[in-house]
Amino acid sequence: MPLIRTIQINPGCRLGVWRIEEDEAFFREKVNISPAIHHPHKRLQHFAGRYLLQELFPGFPLSSIQIMQSRKPYLECNSLHFSISHCGDNIAAIVSSNGAVGIDIEDVKPKIEAVSHKFLSPEERAFIDPVNALPHKTVCWSAKEAVYKWYGLGGVDFKENMQLAPFIFQPTGFITCNFNKVDKNARLYLQYLMEDELCLTWTNDAEDLTVPAITENTASGH
Hints:
Largest sheet: 5 strands, antiparallel
CATH superfamily: 4'-phosphopantetheinyl transferase domain
Number of strands: 11
Distance between the termini: 63 Å
Mean pLDDT: 92
GO molecular function, one term: holo-[acyl-carrier-protein] synthase activity
Structural class: alpha+beta
Helix content: 25-40%
Order of helices and strands: EEHHEEEEEHHHEEEEH
Number of domains: 1
Keywords: Transferase
Organism: Chitinophaga pinensis
CATH class: Alpha Beta
Oligomer: single chain
Protein name: 4'-phosphopantetheinyl transferase superfamily protein
Shape: globular
InterPro entries: 4-PPantetheinyl_Trfase_dom, 4-PPantetheinyl_Trfase_dom_sf
């Protein structure tokens, strides 16, 4: 069965990874959507991602999915929060009834090294394991992609708005990320798995550090 991994994170949150071995017709029979996507493989990924949402949460309201200007899919009623990621024939999705989530799946490829200066600060580059530099940087990239999807509104500078706390590279692990923008200040807790040159990273736990604006009355004690 192409569902190669599921993790029940808590009673209201579940993730899964699907490896596509089916043709588009398989998903079309089970997913009642008509995406305006012309590229065959991207359309296949789209169908598989929606199908995976239903596998994780039977009865998931696919017809109610809306798309933000940032291209993030969401449910207007916010009854469920979800995130989807594609990497070749691998699809990852996370669904939660508790709050915002983000997920990312990445191949370990040299292109990560080529662009690492664009998403890693000097402090982050300092803790990269020189023996495992490429996979370590891949985890960092994947973590920031998951945080980007958690935020969902776009306009994020991966180097300036996200700071990863130092962590030792291992096949599985936990990461803390501070997210700082004018409208949002939060500390996110992520988990990752590295297996067969494929990195899966997700977040379903965030601490909101945004300070409410002080009104004149509040400041004066009235």
